[in-house]
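subagent[fold] <- orchestrator: predict structure for attached chain, return tokens only, no commentary.
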Amino acid sequence: MPSSKWFKIGYGIIIVMVIIFLATKIDFIFTPIEIFFETLFMPFLISGVIYYLLRPIVYFLNRKKVPKVVSILLIYLIVIGGTAALVYFVGPELQRQFKDLMDNYPQYIEGLRNKADELQNSAWFSRFQENDYITFDYITEQMSSYFKSNFSDLSSRLTGVFSIVTSVVTVIVTVPFIVFYLLKDSEGASKGMVRYLPYFQAAETRKILKDMDEALSSYIQGQAIVSFIVGVMMYIGYLIIGINYSLILAIVAMLTNVIPFLGPFLALVPAVIVGFTMSPFMALKVILVVIVVQQIDGNVSSPLIMGRKLDVHPLTIILILLVAGNLAGLIGMIVAVPAYAIIKVIISHAYRLYTLKKADRDQIIQVED
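subagent[fold] -> orchestrator:
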């Protein structure tokens, strides 16, 4: 049996995978672990994002001799006040647009089909009539079947509303406490992780944790600022062209912008559908607004705010998003890039330590020779 280092590593990996596989077959072992991670994942994900957004403010106030606990409580009061003001000024308009969208949803679907029929009968589209591969009848039938399949069983889906509401309430209640203790004791947590390690390993672990923290901090803070700017620009652009539900569509664009590259295309779909129900020319204006905003974002706001701190090639990001989307859906696409940044930091440090140890061994062999 081979006894080299790489074979031993392979044996270890195989043994760990076999143990994990066997654990998944034993319900009383794996099910509690699965429930544990499912319960904690979303609260800690949201808390982590909020922590990185609020931490610079806490550090700034702390440098001004304001105690950390007082700083956190002051920020909480400001956030609560800002949220109340936002709901007061923006809430009525958002509620009106959302209610109007829900009330007119069937008419918009029918209007979309009528517009498609008009476009199909137009002169410039006549050249497609001889082509059986692309027809608006086929497209509209597919869209209608999609919406029917997703909304026909709406009554059965409503049975899970109570559990969803319970989960949301749990997150809303627990997240402020988690964020409070993260802001208050984050430095102590990192010190506790390296307390029992040897000096050299503790120093390397602190460096890895520091680099991981910087990667996450720069990405989350930068992405939040960029997404907010994109949302504001989209709202202004939608107001200029006069599209319906401009506030809802701008919020959708702001939220989907956290997904690199694919986010703008996800936000474009509902905006084009709404614009197309008004007129084909409005759909073209929507596309023009999205192109202009993305050009400003790609050439001005993102380079100035995000820079190249993650140093990840765009093709790598696209491949990561495609794989993460198939594995974990929308949540996977959101967390894929920062997770890749963390893994990249760990692997780069592990490789650096390996090369240092290899160089030390080579030097010792040369001295002995």
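orchestrator: received. Logging for downstream: The chain has a mean pLDDT of 76. Residues 10-123+159-185 form one domain.
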